[in-house]
Amino acid sequence: MIFITADGGGTKIIAFAFDENLNVLASAKAGGVNSLFMDKNEARNNMANVADTLFDSLEKNFGNICEVEGLYYTIAGLGSGLPDEIQRHAKVKKTERLSEGQLGFLAGTLEKTGLLALSGTGSDCFLIENCRSVDMIGGWGLYFGDEGSGFDIGRKAIMAAIRSQDGRGEKTELEELVFHSLGLNKSLWEVCSIHNRPSFRKDVSSLTRAVETACGHGDRTALEIVQNAAKELSLATVTIMKKHGYGRNDAFVFTTAGGGWKTSAKMTETFVGDVTEHFPLSVFKKPLFEPVAGGVIKYIFDKGDMPREELLKEKLSEFLL
Length: 321
What we know:
Layout: E1 2-8, E2 12-19, E3 24-31, H1 40-62, E4 67-68, E5 70-75, H2 82-87, E6 91-92, E7 95-97, H3 100-109, E8 114-119, E9 123-129, E10 132-138, H4 150-166, H5 174-182, H6 188-193, H7 200-205, H8 208-216, H9 220-243, E11 253-257, H10 265-278, E12 283-284, H11 294-302, H12 309-315
Parallel strand pairs: 1-5, 4-6, 5-7, 8-11, 11-12
Antiparallel strand pairs: 1-2, 2-3, 8-9, 9-10
Helix pairs in contact: 3-11, 4-5, 4-9, 5-8, 8-9, 9-10
């Protein structure tokens, strides 16, 4: 039997096929698929590309594939053509669309209940109960929200670089790193021109690498940016848990997902410290696998089994974090 799990966001979509023994059979990647922030045709083409690449690999190694037992997937944004793109290649017996929170939490913790704080191109916090996403805070997009996201970190890095350059702010290493990363000189018109780039959201989010470099050198402005990002996500976490009746004497598991967290260890440290201050019995679990592996964990739970960490580390080693 063949199953497929897929995780699609603003930057990329990644998918892999696995069998009933949890062996990875093939994998594929393509560009972003969040049609809220990109051309819908481009998003659909990327879904088609990941499906084509995945089945090309499967058929090369296993012959013609007529049937897929189950598809577990998440697609950021509205709508999704991924099941249709998979169906072009094989009949899919069962399709289950999961939230980003479900997929990331399952992959990160191997647990059924707890919280996931996502800092990718965008940001959200998800409360997961019995493998279901029951509530979320965030997801309002780059103009109205996404606090603590990769885009938010990148935007604040640009602002810090500008203020460093014109004298309104503290001098920061980000001034040189940001302009160099964007391929710009420091003129007003060049900086403003990035608003017209088709890759605007992706380019701004990619500045987490510049912030990471500056943080590694102890740059005070960069460290302040990541600490503020962490505090935005801890505020969302504390708010959603209190909203659902969790108090200081309640234990729960929480974890993180998304490239924004890679900006600095200080970001995770600040986030965990803030959450555990409000919920002393909560337990932070460093994420085990990339979110796409969450489909495998959901399959295991659906069978009534429990995930075995050591076995999964062996079977899904290429998706270990």
